[in-house]
C-alpha cells in the first residue's frame, strides 16, 4: 500500500467521531448479529472517568489487591447484614404460623397459603417498576427508601384481621422486590467478572445467618419468654424485624454510594483504579436511560426465558418451604413448637457450610454451571428423603439439605450479573428472572393442600420434579454458553472485530452482550477471556491527541510512519516508545 493511501485511510479514521459522553456517533457492524450498532453519547456513566485516565496509567497488582480489600470492607458487611434481615422477615410468617398467627387471624382452609402467596403478588406486580426506578434514579437512594418503607410495613403487620394482613403482605412484597436487583447491580459495578460469584455467594449466604438468627435468636426467645411481653409472640417478631430493617435502610442511604466514582471512601486515584479494573468486564457502572432496543433484545434472547423458567422451577420448592417450613417440622416430623423453631437453625448452618465448601472447591474448578448442577443433584436427593423416607431422621436430614437451594440461586444471579451486558438489558433480565422467582413462590404455597396435612404429599413430590427439571435447564444453558463463546472466538481475527477494538473506551459504550464482539460469557469458566491490548490503547490515545492538536495532515503522517494501520503492533519493548511518544504529543 502506498504512503498516500495510508495517509488517506488515516485521515478517514481521524474524522470518525470519538466515543464520548458529550458528542460522537460511531456506527459499526456487529459480527455477532450482522446488524449495524450505533454508539452515541448516551453511554455508560463510567466513561466520564475513563476519558480522563492517562494512557500511561497502570494498576499495580499489589495496589489492586489493597483496593479490593478496601471495597470488600466498606461494602460487603452492610450488604450482607441487610440481606440477612430481609430473609428473616420473609420467614416471620412461618414462625408466626406456629405461634398463634393462624388462630388469632381466624385463618381456615387455604387462607394461610394465600397469605404466603400474597407477598409474591406484590413482588410480581412491582418488579418491573422497581427495577426501572433503580435505573432511573440514584441507586442507593431508591434502595434505602424502599427498605425503610418495608420496615414500616413490617411493624404494621400486627393487625387484628385477616384482610388487612394480606394487604400488608402484598405491599411488603412490592417493596422487597428492589433488594436483589439492586445488590446485583452494585456487585457488577464494583467487581471483575471472576470476583462476582464469590461476592454474590457472600451476601446470599447471609440467608443462612438470617435463618439461624430468625428461628433461634428471635422467634425461639420470644416464644420462651412470651409471658414477659404484652404483645403476642407473632406480633412482636414482626415489630422486631421491622425496626432493624428501618435502621439498615438509613445506614445504606449514608454509607453505600450509587456508583464507584461517588464513593466517599475512595480517593481520586482509587476511583480511576476501579474504572480500570472493571474495564475487562465490557460493562460499566450503568446508564440512567431506558433503551428500547436493549429491552426488545432481552425479550428475544432465548437465555432470558431459560433463566425465567429456572426462576419458576427453583422457587416452587422455595415458596413452599419458606411459608410451611415450621409447619412441616411440627406437623409432618412431629416436633413441639419450641423445638420446631430451634430446628430451623440447622437449615441455616447447612446453607452456610455448603456455600463455604462450594466456594473453596470453586477456586480449583472454576466452572460455575458445573457446581450449580452438582449442588442441585444433592438437592434432588434431599427432597427425595423428605418426600419418600419413612425414618424421621432421614426426613429431617432431607429438610435441612433443602437449604442448598440457595446456592443454585447464587449461581443464577451471578450469571446474570456477569453475562448480561447493556444496563437496560441487565435490569430487564433481572426483572424477568425475578418475575419467574415470584411465579414459583406464588405456586409453592398452593402445592400444600390442607386436606393432605400433615404429609403434604403433593408439595414434596412437586419439589422433587421441579429440581430435576432445573438440572436439565442448567445443562442446556451450559451448552449454549459454550457454543456462543466458540463462535465468538472464531470471529476474533475478522476485520469487523479489529475495527471495533480501535474504538476507544468501547468497554463503556453501554453495549449489550450480543452487540459487543469482545464480550464472553463466563458460566463455563470463572475467568474472563478478553483483556485490552495496552499497546492499542496507548497508540489510539496518542493519535487522538495529535489530531486534536495539529490536525489531519500531521495525524496522517504519524499514523503512516508507525504503520499502525497495516502492521500488528510490535513487542512490549515498543510500549515504552509509544508512551514517550504520547507524552510528547
Describe this protein's structure.
The longest helix is centred in the N-terminal third of the chain and has 37 residues, at 61-97. The relative contact order is 0.14. Helices cover 70% and strands 1% of the residues. The two termini are 26 Å apart. A two-stranded antiparallel sheet has the order 1-2. It is an all-alpha fold and 585 residues long. It has two domains: 1-19 and 533-585, no CATH class; 61-486, MFS general substrate transporter like domains (Growth Hormone, Chain: A). It has helices at 3-14, 47-50, 61-97, 101-104, 111-136, 139-155, 162-176, 179-190, 193-224, 233-255, 268-277, 292-300, 302-332, 337-342, 345-364, 368-388, 392-401, 405-419, 423-446, 457-490, 495-501, 534-550, 552-561, 573-584, and strands at 26-29, 36-39.
The percent of residues in helical segments reads 55-70%
Query: What proportion strand?
Result: under 5%
Domains, number: 2
Strand order of the largest sheet: 1-2
Mean pLDDT, rounded to whole units?
Answer: 76
CATH level 4 superfamily of the largest domain: MFS general substrate transporter like domains
Q: From the helix content, strand content and strand pairing, which structural class follows?
A: mainly alpha
Number of strands: 2
Distance between the termini: 26 Å
Main sheet makeup: 2 strands, antiparallel
The Cα radius of gyration reads 27 Å
Q: What is the CATH class designation of the largest domain?
A: Mainly Alpha
Key traits:
2 strands, 585 residues, disordered C terminus, 2 domains, two-stranded antiparallel ribbon, Growth Hormone, Chain: A, 24 helices, mainly alpha
Amino acid at each position: 500500500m502506498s504512503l498516500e493511501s495510508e495517509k488517506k485511510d488515516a485521515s478517514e479514521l481521524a474524522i470518525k467521531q470519538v466515543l464520548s459522553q458529550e458528542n460522537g456517533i460511531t456506527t459499526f457492524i456487529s459480527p455477532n448479529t450482522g446488524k449495524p450498532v450505533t454508539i452515541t453519547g448516551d453511554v455508560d456513566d463510567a466513561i466520564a472517568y475513563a476519558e480522563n485516565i492517562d494512557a500511561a496509567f497502570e494498576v499495580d497488582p499489589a495496589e489492586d489487591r489493597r483496593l479490593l480489600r478496601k471495597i470488600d470492607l466498606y461494602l460487603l458487611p452492610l450488604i450482607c447484614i441487610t440481606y440477612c434481615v430481609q430473609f428473616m422477615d420473609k420467614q416471620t410468617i412461618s414462625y408466626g404460623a406456629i405461634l398463634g398467627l393462624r388462630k388469632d387471624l381466624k385463618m381456615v382452609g387455604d387462607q394461610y397459603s394465600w397469605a404466603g402467596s400474597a407477598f409474591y403478588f406484590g413482588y410480581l406486580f412491582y418488579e418491573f417498576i422497581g427495577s426501572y426506578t433503580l435505573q432511573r434514579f440514584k441507586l442507593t437512594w431508591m434502595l434505602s427508601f424502599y427498605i425503610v418503607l418495608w420496615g414500616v410495613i413490617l411493624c404494621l403487620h400486627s393487625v387484628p384481621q385477616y384482610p388487612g394482613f394480606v394487604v400488608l403482605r402484598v405491599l411488603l412484597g412490592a417493596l422487597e422486590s428492589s433488594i436483589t436487583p439492586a445488590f446485583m447491580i452494585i456487585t457488577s459495578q464494583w467487581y471483575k467478572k471472576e470476583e462476582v460469584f464469590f461476592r454474590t455467594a457472600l451476601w446470599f449466604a447471609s440467608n443462612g445467618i438470617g435463618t439461624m438468627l430468625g428461628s433461634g435468636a428471635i422467634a425461639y426467645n420470644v416464644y420462651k419468654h412470651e409471658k414477659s411481653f404484652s404483645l403476642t409472640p407473632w406480633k412482636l417478631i414482626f415489630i422486631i424485624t421491622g425496626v432493624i430493617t428501618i435502621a439498615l435502610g438509613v445506614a445504606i442511604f449514608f454509607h453505600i454510594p450509587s456508583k464507584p466514582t461517588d464513593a466517599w471512601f475512595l480517593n481520586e486515584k482509587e476511583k480511576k483504579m476501579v474504572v480500570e479494573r472493571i474495564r475487562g468486564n465490557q460493562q460499566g457502572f450503568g446508564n440512567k436511560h431506558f433503551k428500547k432496543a436493549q429491552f426488545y433484545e432481552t425479550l428475544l434472547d432465548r437465555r432470558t426465558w431459560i433463566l425465567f423458567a429456572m426462576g419458576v422451577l427453583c422457587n416452587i420448592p422455595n415458596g413452599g418451604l419458606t411459608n410451611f417450613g415450621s409447619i412441616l417440622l411440627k406437623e409432618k416430623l412431629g416436633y413441639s413448637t419450641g423445638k420446631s423453631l430451634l430446628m430451623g437453625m440447622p437449615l441455616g448452618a447447612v446453607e452456610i457450610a455448603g456455600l463455604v465448601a462450594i466456594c473453596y472447591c470453586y477456586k480449583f474448578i472454576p466452572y460455575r454451571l458445573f457446581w450449580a448442577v452438582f449442588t442441585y443433584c444433592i438437592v434432588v436427593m434431599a427432597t427425595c428423603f423428605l418426600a419418600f423416607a419413612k425414618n424421621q431422621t432421614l426426613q429431617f436430614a432431607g429438610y435441612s439439605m433443602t437449604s442448598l437451594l440457595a446456592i443454585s440461586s447464587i449461581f443464577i444471579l451471578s450469571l446474570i450479573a456477569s453475562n448480561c451486558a447493556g444496563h437496560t438489558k441487565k435490569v430487564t433480565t433481572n426483572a424477568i428472572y425475578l418475575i419467574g422467582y415470584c411465579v414459583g413462590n406464588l405456586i409453592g404455597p398452593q402445592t400444600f393442600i390442607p386436606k393432605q396435612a400433615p404429609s403434604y404429599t403433593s408439595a414434596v413430590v412437586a419439589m422433587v420434579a421441579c429440581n430435576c427439571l432445573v438440572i436439565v435447564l442448567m445443562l442446556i444453558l451450559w451448552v449454549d454458553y459454550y457454543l456462543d463463546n466458540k463462535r465468538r472466538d472464531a470471529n476474533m481475527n475478522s476485520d469487523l472485530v479489529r475495527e471495533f477494538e480501535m474504538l476507544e473506551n468501547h468497554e463503556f459504550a453501554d453495549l449489550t452482550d450480543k452487540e459487543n464482539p469482545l464480550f464472553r460469557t463466563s458460566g463455563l469458566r470463572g475467568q474472563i477471556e478478553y483483556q485490552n491490548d495496552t499497546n492499542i490503547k496507548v497508540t489510539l490515545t496518542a493519535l487522538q491527541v495529535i489530531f486534536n492538536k495539529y490536525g489531519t495532515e500531521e495525524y496522517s503522517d504519524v499514523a503512516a510512519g508507525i504503520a499502525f494501520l497495516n502492521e500488528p503492533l510490535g513487542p512490549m519493548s515498543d510500549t515504552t516508545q509509544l508512551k514517550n511518544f504520547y507524552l510528547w504529543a
